[in-house]
Amino acid sequence: MRRLALLPPLLSLLAACTVGPDYKGPPDVAPRSEAAGQFHRAASAPVDVATPPARWWDGMGWDGRGDPELAHLVDLALAASPTLKAAQARVLEARALVAQQRAALFPQGNATALAAKARIPTGALSTADNQINAALAREAITNPSLFPGGTPPHVDIPNHVTTELYNLGFDARWELDLFGGTRREIEAAAAQTDAAAAKVEDAQVQLAAEVGQAYVGLRDAQHRLDLTRASAAAEHRMLDLTVDKRRLGTATDADVARMETQARQTDAQIPPLEGQVEQAMDQLALLAGQEPGTLDAELAPIRPLPLPPAVVPVADPAALLRRRPDIRAAERQLAASNAEIGYAVAQLFPNVSLFGSIGFGSNKVDTLFRSSSLSMIGAPMLSWNVLDWGRVRAQIRQASAANEESLAQYQSTVLQALQDAESGLSRYGHQREATFQLAAALDVATRAQRLADARYRGGTATALEALDAERQRLLVEQSLAQAQAQTSNDYIALQKSLGLGWQPVDPARLPNPPDY
């Protein structure tokens, strides 16, 4: 009894043994950036070290107001995108794998029940039947007094046997995780679940940015289409005036041909822009998980291009490294690969299992549960494939190499994130400056058009000169519209590089798939 009392503490002590390297967290890849109070390229753009909002799209709009259509489209995409649903399904898959691995820590049982009735042929008995009848015939000849009437009886022995069998049993097997191989598998699976959840959050970041840029592309195409139509109308008016001047002898056929060529070239720009508007609508429908054409009526009315806020909060590099979901996913992948090394190392050690079975067996139902029908067995079992260490050693080296690969991928992800943010700040700041220059050029072109109109009304300029000034202003306005759209896209790309636009994913709150 004293020896049996020592067994549970001994098993607990052995269970506390987990071979392989313990995970000590990710390495410090960018110490200088983490220690810095701001980004290196922060001077290129009007930014603030304040904490940025996750819903960056709420800050885009015009006249100090947000764009409700943009917010609606992003929310619709985050709720219905098939891409996001696929990422969520991978989280549930990884979570189920954790439950499967944890179940291996507990005993596994199997219950059986059997009721059988068999009819078994007995060819040997048929042979005995013939032998007995032949012996009786010989005895009748030798001793006829034994058989009144002189004829021996015929003996019939059946040529089959009918039997019944009833059995109830239960057996259990418990594989003791003495060296932590199963626990390392659980550790790896849990880390993979966290990585899958981080990838869902990263998919949210990517999706919100794609919706924002597609929406900016739609409004930009609509605006440029409107300006191109206005420019085409102005050029056709100039063509009509040139034709009138040719009738009066103040313009040549070459002047008319030049103006007609210019007008037709502008006309040719309209169909591609109409195609860009339709393609942008279809892209937004796809991102929102809708059929093509579903959002056309909602998106057809022309609205102003959403512009970024005057000052952009970006926090600091250390906050970026904590916030970006792809960095957290890479770190969890690193933790999982570290646990896989421990699982491989555990294969070097013996495997100990406890096996037990209890059952009742009888050829009659009424005697099935008698003590004489009871059978029991219980035994420990040890298996240790000592001749397979070469293969196991190779698996350990393979797991170690995979861990080194995960480490390199984590380092690359961190450095790429910092590069994305720094480049995003640079692009946004310089594009914003170019947009300001074009806005100033539009002011000059607008003043020139007003002066030409005033001179035309005063009789000191021709109608052709006034129309040409209008056409030049429209060209500058088109360039400014393109620059503003690029500024908005660069702002969205900056938010994406900062890892904004996601909400925390709790695997326990995701809808479970049907349990068939």
From TrEMBL:
Topology of the protein relative to the lipid bilayer: Lipid-anchor
Gene3D superfamilies xrefs: Outer membrane efflux proteins (OEP) (2.20.200.10)
Protein's cellular compartments: Cell membrane
Record's keyword annotation contains Lyase: no
Family annotation (InterPro entries): MdtP/NodT-like, OMP_efflux
Main location group: membrane
Domain of life: Bacteria
Protein family: Belongs to the outer membrane factor (OMF) (TC 1.B.17) family.
NCBIfam families on file: outer_NodT
Record protein name field: NodT family efflux transporter outer membrane factor (OMF) lipoprotein
Natural source organism: Nitrospirillum amazonense
